[in-house]
């Protein structure tokens, strides 16, 4: 993707399985998911770093146990590059995909980045999934996010979906609690972000 003075930082959690059909899906491993996203992004001219990861959302919304294999894309792109990212979404067969940007370029909300340090990606993902499921009944909303492996460390990120989360203070407090359950002592970094949802129609 071409350089431009108005380029902005973008992150995307790109799932790779277009439908589970009762729990069956084609790409099982985060490394394979990252490679698949890397291939299609390259064909579309999208440059950036792509890390192996697992996307974590509600099981009753189709998330498999331990998370959905995904490629976590970080790139520098035009502020108006959503068409390219939507093409990526369609090529991956995804019903929808979230694009995270600076707050001035999307619906303003709150996000968090997490450095879990050394560890096992799948173990951290499973802890996240189980902790979020346990907190859901009391909170009334699900703490979705993604974990990925980068530079020998396990990292995480999450955003408060503005379509679902209205109380950002409650989301921030709950996210802090979730992270401490996953790995005590970790210090997350919260930030303001912009949120875009790409979807069919």
How many domains? The number is: 2
Briefly note the structural class of the backbone.
alpha+beta
Low-confidence stretches: 1-5
**Number of continuous helical runs:** 4
User: Using DSSP, what is the number of strands?
Assistant: 8
Helix content: 25-40%
Overall, the morphology is globular
Largest beta-sheet details:
8 strands, antiparallel, barrel
* Overall average pLDDT: 89
Q: Look at the structure and give the CATH class of the largest domain.
A: Alpha Beta
Spatial order of strands in the largest sheet: 1-3-2-6-7-5-8-4
And the CATH topology of the largest domain?
Alpha-Beta Plaits
**Which architecture of the largest domain does the CATH hierarchy give at level 2?**
2-Layer Sandwich
Beginning-to-end CA distance, first to last residue: 25 Å
In percent terms, what proportion of residues is strand? 25-35%
Radius of gyration: 16 Å
Q: How do the SSEs run, as a string of H and E?
A: EHEEHEEHEEHE
């Amino acid at each position: 993707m071409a350089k431009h003075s108005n380029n902005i930082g973008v992150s995307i959690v790109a799932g790779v399985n277009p439908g589970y059909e009762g729990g069956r899906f084609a790409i099982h491993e985060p490394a394979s998911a990252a490679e698949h996203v890397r291939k299609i992004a390259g064909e579309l001219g999208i440059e950036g770093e792509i890390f192996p990861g697992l996307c974590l959302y509600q099981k009753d919304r189709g998330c498999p146990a331990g998370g959905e294999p995904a490629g976590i894309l970080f790139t520098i792109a035009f502020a108006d590059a959503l068409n390219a990212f939507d093409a990526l979404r369609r090529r991956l067969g995804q019903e929808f995909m979230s694009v995270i940007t600076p707050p001035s370029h999307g619906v303003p909300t709150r996000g968090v980045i997490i450095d879990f340090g050394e560890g096992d990606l799948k173990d951290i993902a499973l802890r996240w999934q189980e902790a979020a499921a346990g907190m859901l009944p009391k909170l009334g909303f699900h703490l979705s996010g993604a974990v990925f492996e980068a530079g020998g460390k396990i990292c995480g990120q999450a955003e408060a979906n503005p379509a679902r989360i209205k109380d950002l203070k409650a989301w921030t407090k709950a996210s802090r609690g979730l992270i401490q359950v996953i790995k005590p002592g970790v210090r997350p970094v919260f930030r303001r972000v912009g949120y875009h949802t790409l979807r069919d129609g």
